[in-house]
Hints:
The chain is mostly beta strands and 86 residues long.
Amino acid sequence: MTGSQEILLEVTDLVKHFNVPKGVVRSVDGVSFSIRRGETLGLVGESGCGKTTTGRTIIRLYDVTSGSVRWKGHELANLSQKEMIP
């Protein structure tokens, strides 16, 4: 795709769960969206609903529990920290 049709970021069924002593916290569960060149996306929701965790998981500050994060067609979810530098 070219121009405004090019998908820059595609997030599909993103899941981030945290293991805690009393069980599992399901912070992000099944988030999907795409952003094309020239578009802007805003995440809106109540405090504690997973907005920040979604962003931190996309940029790999947190490991992805499951799902897909693709930047310009390249999968990011399984890259190591070293592979993420470029």
